[in-house]
Amino acid sequence: MVVDGRVARSSVVASQVELHAQYGGIVPEVASRQHLLNIIPVIEAALAEAEVTLDDIDAIAATRGPGLTGALLVGYSTGKALAYARGLPFLGVNHLEGHVYANWLVEGDEPRFPALCLVVSGGHTDFVLMEGHGDYRRIGGTRDDAAGEAFDKAGRLLGLGYPGGPAVSKLAATSGPSDLKLPRAWIHGTYDLSFSGLKTAVLHTVRAGEYDAGQIAWEFQEAVVDVLAGKTTRLARELEVAEVLVAGGVAANARLREELRARCPVPVRIPPAVYCTDNAAMIGAVAGHRLALGETSEFDEDVFSTNDWDNIDRR
Ligand code: KG4
Ligand code: ZN
Question: For ligand 1, what atom is nearest to the CA of residue 123?
Fold first, then answer.
């Protein structure tokens, strides 16, 4: 439950981590079925925690995508049905735009434009220039694996559970620098990144058995953080942005937060970790801002799984 797109009065997340851990990753149909079981209790808990009832709600929003279609359909259909039954406006919100707007949930001054957004999640690693509300231009990003995906794959190679990000980061914290060096793909002259070579290097290092898992986790995390923080810093300087906004599950990574703050020439805004990984409050933050601009969605829109920052879907 979010007020004016800026204050999260409650944010309830029904984690499916334990359920999916037994399969080593997300099984789409299992995820959808679990959403179906969780959706009503989650809505009730979000209202209860915010100490409001549906009578106090002005509009209802749900994620439209990109994401797993079956899971999206559950939230989207429930949101539409509730809005229709209550005669309330409905807003279908882009998932990635939601990650960016988690930065509006932080107390204090609003983010300033132009902002450089670093969106690092399980499915995306994008550099996006944001010049106003809803105004985005993608200027680079990964050419292969997303940063979160790389963490998840490294975690699997190291025999850690799903999701790999928090597990790799926890293991890295038990270790430190060693003479193991893993590659950083800089792709000079572009704002693009690549993590597939790093993943392969982890595979070969694990197979060779010369280093312990802690040393590999440490150096892997350093390699990802070094490239992300290095490119972000260069971009922030070249584009002369007012701020850097960090978003997505990997923004919960403590080393990444530390390095971005240490290196960037402009203020770096990063939401608290609970608003970095997938959550409903960030969707409410977008909805509140769009509602203030008079934007709502039609009831005959479908969910979608593609993403195009330059033509972001705010229908
Ligand atoms: O944004 P998100 O919750 O879901 C997607 O939209 O993908 O991001 C999930 C990703 C996973 O790949 C997970 O391993 C990664 O974020 N992640 C982390 C950390 N916490 C979550 N990666 C590195 N360090 C973390 N502390
Ligand atoms: Zn996400």
Answer: 7
Would the CB of 126 count as within 6 Å of ligand 1?
A: no
Using pLDDT thresholds of 50, 70 and 90, give the confidence band for residue 212: very high
Which domains are assigned to the chain? Answer: 2-100+276-314 (3.30.420.40), 112-270 (3.30.420.40)
- In whole numbers, what is the pLDDT of the chain averaged over residues? 95
> Can you give the pLDDT at residue 32?
94
**To test the ligand 1 pocket, which listed residue (121, 225, 305) has its Cβ within 8 A of the most ligand atoms?**
121
The one-letter amino acid code at 186 reads: W
DSSP state, 3? E
Do 72 and 276 form a contact (C-beta atoms < 8 A)?
no
4 Cα–ligand 1 center, Å: 27
DSSP line for 34-66 = HHHHHHHHHHHHHHHHHT--GGG---EEEEEES
Give strand ranges (E) for the chain.
2-3, 7-8, 60-65, 90-94, 115-120, 125-132, 135-141, 243-247, 268-269
284 Cβ below 6 A of ligand 1: no
CA-CA-CA-CA torsion sign (42, 48, 50, 55) = positive
- The amino acid present at 79, given as its one-letter code, is G
Average pLDDT over residues 43-54: 98
> What's the gap in Å between 121 CA and the centre of ligand 1?
5
Smallest CA separation from ligand 1 atom 10, residue: 122
Closest to 255 (Cα-Cα) out of 204, 220, 292? 220
Residue-level pLDDT at 139: 96
Model confidence pLDDT, tens digit, residues 239-273: 999 999 999 999 999 999 999 999 999 999 999 99
Residue 174 is predicted with a pLDDT of 98
Instruction: Average the pLDDT over each of 9-18, 86-95, 259-268 and give the range with the smallest value.
Output: 9-18
